[in-house]
Every structure is written in C-alpha cells, then in structure tokens.
C-alpha cells in the first residue's frame, strides 16, 4: 500500500452540476458558500479556536487545558484533561432539553415487528444494562465484544459500555466463529454480548452457536450475555452464559454516567478487509464524538423533526457514527432496520421510507446499484415524498448511479451528499455541505471545514488540477484514529510512513478546476496500462453508464505488451442477455466514453461480484481470477464464498 512513483491518469469526464435549491439552502445549518468558506478559513488559520468552538456542541464535565497535543505524533490527544461521557451526551442531556419523549430509535425487524424507544426509555434501558455489565465485573477500560443482529439492544449495549467506560468491539453479525474468536483475542475481551440469532432473508442466523465455537478459542472471555431475539434453541453454559432478560431483571435503573477522560478508549473496530487483514482501529471519547456529532449535523443538515435512516449495520463504522453516536448526540430520531433490502420483496426500503416518513436517507453505492438492477418499478410503487436529503458512503458512486438516485429516489429535489471517509477517520471528511456546496455526480466535493485533505504526488506536493494523485490529510483532526489496537508500529507503518507527518489514506483521487475531489478508489486497485495508471472506478463508471449494465468490477491482468490488460466483470440489468455482441458493444462504449487507452481487453459477464460483508467489491480476489491463479488471500470478510467458485467455473 505505498504511493507509487507515477501519478494516476484521470479519464472520467463528468460535467453536470447541481446547485442547492434556494429554499433548502436558506434553512440549512451551513446556508451559503460564503459561510462554508468562512468556516474553512477559520479552521485553517486557527484550528485550536475553531475546534474549541465546535466542541461546545457537546456537554463536558470538565474543561480541557489544551485543544490538541500533537507532541507524540502520530498519536494525537484532543481536548487534553477534559472529561465527558458519550452516553450522557447521547441520552441524559436530552431528558432535560425537551426531547425526553421524542423517539430516539425507531426499529423494524425483518419479520415486520417494530419498536420505538424514546430518549427516556432508551436512557433507562442503557442504565439498567450498564449496571448489569458492572454486576458481571465489567469496569472502566475492560473490552467487551458485541456480536448482535440489528436490534435496539445492539445500540443499548454500545451505549452501556460507553456509560461505564468499557471499550466495545462490535463484530458484524454476519461474520464466522473464527472471525469472532480472532477479534476477541486481539482485543482480549472480557465479556461478549450476543443473541440466540438474528433474521436474514427469512432464516435465523445462529449467532449463539457461532459464539459457542468462538469461545472455545477465546480464553479472555469470562461471560456471555444472550439476548432472546428469535426464540431459537441455544445451549447455555452454566456460570458463563446469562440471558439478557435475566441480567437486567435485578439491575438498578440508576447508573450515573462515568466521567471519562477525553482520550479514554471508546471503541475498537476492525476495518472491512477490502485490501487485506482487518486492522483494529482505536477511537477515543471526546474527539470521536465531536467528529460524529458535528458531521452528522452539517452533512445531513439534521433538524429537530427529521426522521433519519442510515441503512448500514452497526458492525461497520458507518453504523457506529451515523446510526448510534452522531444522531443520538444530536437528539435526532434514528431508524434501525434488521433485514435485507430485498426481503420479502425488492421494495422493502421504499416501504420503510413511506411508513415512517423518512426525511434523510443514507445508504451505499452497492445498494443503489442493486436497486437499479432490480428495476424502477419497486421505488415507483411507493410514496417517497417525505425524503429531503440523500447520502452515499462506502465506495465511489458511479455518476450514472448518482443520477438514478437523484431522479428515481430523490424525485430530482433532494441534494445528494456523497461522503468520503474511513473507519480510521471516525467521521465524514469530504462531502458536500448540502446548503452550500453545488454537487457533481461522482464527486464527494470538498473537504469539510477543519479537514485538510489534499491530493498530492509521490513527493507530497499538490498535483495540478485534473491530474490524479494520492489522497492525504495534512493536519490532525479530532475524530482521527489513535492507533491500531495493540500495534503502534503497524499504525505508523500503514498510515504515516509514506509521507512523514501526513496521514496517508491509501486512496487515489483527482482535484478538478473547481477544487472538487474525485475519489478514484484504492491505490492498490489502480491499473497500469501502457504506462498509464488508470483508476478502476473510472472504467467501471463508463461501463455502468451503458444502459444494460448494472454493476461492474475492473481489474488488471498481467500482460506482456501493455503491462496490464483491462479485465472487466460485468453484471447486467434484469432482462438483458450476455452475448458476444454485447461484449463488443461494451468495449466500444468504454473506448468512446473515456478514450481508446481504457478500452477493455476482456469482458466477463457475472451474476454477482465478490464483495465484503459491507458490500464493497473485493477487486483483489478478482485479480487472481483474471490472472487464472489460485488465491492465497485472506477471504474472511468475503460475503458469499459461492461467488468465487462460480466465477472460477465460468472461467473454465
Ligand atoms: P480495509 O482497510 O480493511 O481494506 P476498507 O478500506 O474497505 O477495508 P472502510 O474503512 O470501511 O474499510 O472503508 C473506507 C474506504 O472506503 C475508503 O478508504 C475508500 O476506499 C472507500 N470509500 C468510502 N466512502 C467513499 C466515497 N464516498 N467515495 C469513494 N470511496 C469511498
Ligand atoms: Mg481501508
């Protein structure tokens, strides 16, 4: 993952611009380009004063003596000496500011069961469970693994840990027993919180059985709390396992929020593993919460009456920052959904938006491309007029997918915020301020105020407009990761060794004439074709822009002549046949869209693509298939093992 000597050639030519509507802008938190510029200039000239002012949006038990201590770089300390509590900020303070009876979480389970928890109710449940954890011997600094379906108790468990100063490590409920054991052992968790199972496309995923297997290999774990979600049979080990409902039965509902140091470790979260072995990213209390809350307010323009829905899983950082911590810190109503977008039918998301009158909707390009593939009839059958803002995260969004999202879901009236960030950054870094930033399909637009993201060459100098380069962040920011848990050396080597003193994101990007940033995907995925370094995302976007293509993944295959040949895996929209004529047509289409240089050498049709559990295309696995070799790579975060076998068969 190192910055190569050569820059990246950008071939994408997207020129559409969508300025904010006047009515939207005038009511927005950041209402004009002038205000956005003022914030940016202030943050640049006096970052300490800027961040100190923003930090007033949180409740602090004790003030700081220093805003940033960077003397032990790259390990930052933010709001030095201050004390606060994340659960207090997400719950207690709303009980006295008029939100006690406001819905905090609106939840819908896959089978259609629903629950609404007001701030008062959520506060009571969190307090009770926090006391239950204390009763099990969990205290400040202990690690707790959370391996749960998407039920309110997942958020309750997170907040209960935060309340008493335990550090949580949420492991996505779709991961295997081995993945759970690895993460238990890496974090040396004392307790694991799980459920008997969770629903996924009508079936029960046996979470407790996975935990039983994981605990055979997790010597640090002393207790296991089990929520009864599905009434499915489980084995309870006496002395170790305890039902959630029993644990809270005798627990007191009064549990004062522990005053914690601003740098107290809030959570460890393992990255999605798109590029290799997951890293245990460590986030702390004050800076992280400020990043999550401030960006949630600015980027989603959150207002008191919004019904906000982020479709991520709490197992990912998006679920941490934008289902739980950001929205609750802002006193918003956050929707939580347990199931899949196509169960029982392909309109489940649209049904939920209509039912709860969702006004702000945040999802991923992988989902958007699936919706496009399934057809417009599904969203068109629902009233989506409650929506006022749409968001995207996780991968670069192809301009055509952006346009579809804008027109079919947003009815042409909703600004789209394409948000670039990483598990490591804790919060959104590059995104439109929807009342101030004109959007361009496929661009995350500009760094948020206070975020010094830049596109640089190998030497660290800013690249000229429209040239590709490496995305870096020059100054520390409050929600930045503090280290890789237990591995300071890997932290330094991974993020801080390419450019001394500068954070290396491992993503490639281009900056256009207006200073907009176009993230081109991972540096590792860049193709090297006849001496040009091309972004896979740009070739994919050209393919997706063909009316018959739903999704594509582009990788390089070693080629004697060109260095790398361009190999494209293509998924077609429903109703189109995979023919040789279409292959030729797609090759010609790409050449016409972005130039002969990017003309694909191979097109392979495929029903599905290998993705991580969080829905990101795993190009590293496709590279092996394209090259016709067996893979020896880490596949523990792969979503569907069958896909690889299928792709290999197609090959033969
Ligand atoms: P690993 O680091 O283990 O390989 P990962 O990078 O997929 O996994 P995450 O932290 O979940 O883990 O994802 C962050 C990455 O996702 C970014 O570095 C970028 O490549 C991509 N990404 C996220 N949002 C966007 C976006 N809006 N536009 C372009 N790329 C994005
Ligand atoms: Mg990453």
TrEMBL record:
User: What reaction is this protein's catalytic activity?
Assistant: acetate + ATP + CoA = acetyl-CoA + AMP + diphosphate
Q: Which cofactor does it need?
A: Mg(2+)
> Which cellular component appears as one GO term in the record?
cytosol
Question: How does it get modified post-translation?
Answer: Acetylated. Deacetylation by the SIR2-homolog deacetylase activates the enzyme.
PTM sites of type N6-acetyllysine: 616
Tell me its family. Answer: Belongs to the ATP-dependent AMP-binding enzyme family.
Q: What does this protein do?
A: Catalyzes the conversion of acetate into acetyl-CoA (AcCoA), an essential intermediate at the junction of anabolic and catabolic pathways. AcsA undergoes a two-step reaction. In the first half reaction, AcsA combines acetate with ATP to form acetyl-adenylate (AcAMP) intermediate. In the second half reaction, it can then transfer the acetyl group from AcAMP to the sulfhydryl group of CoA, forming the product AcCoA.
Record protein name field: Acetyl-coenzyme A synthetase
Organism of origin is: Fimbriiglobus ruber
Primary gene name:
acsA
């Amino acid at each position: 993952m190192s910055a190569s000597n050569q820059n990246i050639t950008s071939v994408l030519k997207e020129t559409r611009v969508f300025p904010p509507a006047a009515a939207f802008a005038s009511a927005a938190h950041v209402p004009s380009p002038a205000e956005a510029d003022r914030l940016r200039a202030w943050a640049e000239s006096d970052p300490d004063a800027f961040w100190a002012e923003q930090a007033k949006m949180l409740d602090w038990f004790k003030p700081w003596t220093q805003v940033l201590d960077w003397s032990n770089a790259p390990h930052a300390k933010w709001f030095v000496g201050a004390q606060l509590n994340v659960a207090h900020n997400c719950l207690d303070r709303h009980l006295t500011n008029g939100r006690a009876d406001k819905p905090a979480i609106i939840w819908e389970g896959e089978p259609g069961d629903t629950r609404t928890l007001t701030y008062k109710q959520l506060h009571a449940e969190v307090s009770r469970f926090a006391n239950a954890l204390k009763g099990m011997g969990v205290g400040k600094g202990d690690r707790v693994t959370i391996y749960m379906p998407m039920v309110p108790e997942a958020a309750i468990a997170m907040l209960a840990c935060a309340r008493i100063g335990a550090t949580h490590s949420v492991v996505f409920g779709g991961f295997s027993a081995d993945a759970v054991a690895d993460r238990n052992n890496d974090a040396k968790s004392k307790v694991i919180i799980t459920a008997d199972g969770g629903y996924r496309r009508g079936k029960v995923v046996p979470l407790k059985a996975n935990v039983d297997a994981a605990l055979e290999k997790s010597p640090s774990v002393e207790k296991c709390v089990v929520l009864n979600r599905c009434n499915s049979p489980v084995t309870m080990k006496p002395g170790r396992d305890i039902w959630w409902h029993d644990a809270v039965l005798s627990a007191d509902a009064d549990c004062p929020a522990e005053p914690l140091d601003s740098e107290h470790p809030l959570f460890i979260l393992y990255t999605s593993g798109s590029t290799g072995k997951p890293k245990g990213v460590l986030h702390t209390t004050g800076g992280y919460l400020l990043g999550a809350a401030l960006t949630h307010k600015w980027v989603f323009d959150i207002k008191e009456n919004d019904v906000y829905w982020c479709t991520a899983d709490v197992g990912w950082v998006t679920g941490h920052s934008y289902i739980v911590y950001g929205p609750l810190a802002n006193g918003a109503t956050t929707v939580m959904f347990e199931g899949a977008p196509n169960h029982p039918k392909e309109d489940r998301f649209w049904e939920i938006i209509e039912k709860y009158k969702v006004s702000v909707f945040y999802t991923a390009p992988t989902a958007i491309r699936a919706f496009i593939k399934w057809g417009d009839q599904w969203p068109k059958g629902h009233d989506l007029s409650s929506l006022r803002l749409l968001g995207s995260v996780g991968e670069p969004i192809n301009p055509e997918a952006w346009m579809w999202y804008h027109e079919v879901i947003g009815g042409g009236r909703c600004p789209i915020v394409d948000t670039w960030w990483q598990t490591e950054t804790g919060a959104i870094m590059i995104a439109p301020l929807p009342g101030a930033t004109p959007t361009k399909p496929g661009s995350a637009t500009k760094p948020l105020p206070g975020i010094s993201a830049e596109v640089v060459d190998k030497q660290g100098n800013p690249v000229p407009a429209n040239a590709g380069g490496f995305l870096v962040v020059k100054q520390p920011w409050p929600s930045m990761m503090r280290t890789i848990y237990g591995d300071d050396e890997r932290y330094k080597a991974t993020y801080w060794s390419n450019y001394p003193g500068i954070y290396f994101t491992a993503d490639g990007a281009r900056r256009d004439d207006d200073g907009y940033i176009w993230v081109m995907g991972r540096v590792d995925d860049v193709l090297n074709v006849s001496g040009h370094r091309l972004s896979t995302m740009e070739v994919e976007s050209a393919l997706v822009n063909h009316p018959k293509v739903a999704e594509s993944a582009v990788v390089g295959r070693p080629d004697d002549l060109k260095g790398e040949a361009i190999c494209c895996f293509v998924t077609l929209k429903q109703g189109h046949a995979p023919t040789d004529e279409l292959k030729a047509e797609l090759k010609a289409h790409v050449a016409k869209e972005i130039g002969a240089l990017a003309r694909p050498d191979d097109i392979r049709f495929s029903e599905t693509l290998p993705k991580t559990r969080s829905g990101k295309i795993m190009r590293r696995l496709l590279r092996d298939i394209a090259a016709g070799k067996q893979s020896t790579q880490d596949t523990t975060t792969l979503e569907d093992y069958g896909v690889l076998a299928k792709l290999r068969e197609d090959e033969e």
